[in-house]
Amino acid sequence: VQLQASGGGLVQAGASLSLSCAASEPTFSRYVMGWFRQAPGKEREFVATINWSGGSTYHADSVKGRFTISRDNAKNTVYLQMNSLKPEDTAVYYCAAAARAGLTSRSGDFGSWGQGTLVTVSS
Are 96 and 31 contacting, i.e. CB atoms less than 8 angstroms apart? Predict the structure, then answer.
């Protein structure tokens, strides 16, 4: 499945930003979707994941209560709403798709990746 992420930008600390990831695959609803991020000089890390229906989600502790993952299967799109952004949230954000039934936070379980969108949070 081809994924196209968008919505990144430069914001000040405390602001909100919404990322979108559109999938080309008409069977989008079969995939577990996830968001990951990679800050400069650091390894890629898990952010959030959502099951096929959107009824089950899991967020990393570092973003819990601030970020929310959601999906709209009719639009073949997954979202990441980011509130109360911090400078340490600065990273390239990637969406990914996993052909599996259950939630996962392991990057190796995701077979398709988007190109990434840069989020920069200034202090």
Answer: no
Residue (of 88, 89, 94) closest to 33 by Cα position? 94
Paired sense of beta strands 117-122 and 9-12, if any: parallel
Residue 101: is its pLDDT beyond 90?
A: no
DSSP 67: E
User: For 15, what's the count of Cα atoms within 13 Å in the CB-facing half-sphere?
Assistant: 15
What is the mean predicted confidence (pLDDT) over 4-19? 98
pLDDT reading at 26 higher than 90: no
Cα separation values, 8 from 53, 60, 90, 92, 106, Å:
25, 19, 10, 8, 23
Contact call for residues 52 and 30 (beta carbons, < 8 A): yes
Q: Which residues contact 121 (CB under 8 A, 6 or more apart)?
A: 11, 12, 13, 15, 85, 86, 87, 88, 89, 90
The token pair at 69 is: 């993952």
Which residues, 6+ apart, have CB-to-CB distance to 43 below 8 Å?
none
Give the sign of the dihedral formed by CA 52, CA 55, CA 58, CA 64.
positive
